Amino acid sequence: MAGLVALIGSINVGGNRVKMDALRVAFEKAGFTGVATVTASGNVLFNDDGKDDTEGRIAALLKSDFGIDSFAAVRSRTELAAALANNPFTEAGEEKLVHTMFLEGQPDASAFAQLEADHQGRGPEKLAPGTKALHIDYVDGLGSSKLTKQLIERRLGCRGTARNVTSIRRIMEKMKD
């Protein structure tokens, strides 16, 4: 079982189509071990020695092997569990509508306040900051939401990739502690 997951942004959305088998092979070629994918949306389980910039290495392989300028939020099973535990909407909301957006960095409190202010009155979504994460309850669904990934990234000043509660739990089931 793998100890880490790369939550890759912008895979199999827009024009960035990548077969999960090809992604697995690229990770193995880059020296990662225990590689497996979970669902077809850029969740790669793996082990790494942690000696260098894992997220940077993954971003470089996405660019070189697939021509995709993206990033990977690398998290352990413990970090995923903490993200679920710290998401104030996990228990009250609908699992497929409650998301954690895993961020490239930690935005400052003023950036989160600006995002909240800009979204005020634009929809029913609920927001809460987390550790290198933003927790969101898309109360009425994502399809009609005005709280877009682009808006969130502009306001917070960093890229992110979101997974719903169901997906996070599915990923955690496949990982070791």
Automatic annotation (TrEMBL):
<dbReference type="InterPro" id="IPR012545">
    <property type="entry name" value="DUF1697"/>
</dbReference>
<dbReference type="Pfam" id="PF08002">
    <property type="entry name" value="DUF1697"/>
</dbReference>
<protein>
    <submittedName>
        <fullName>DUF1697 domain-containing protein</fullName>
    </submittedName>
</protein>
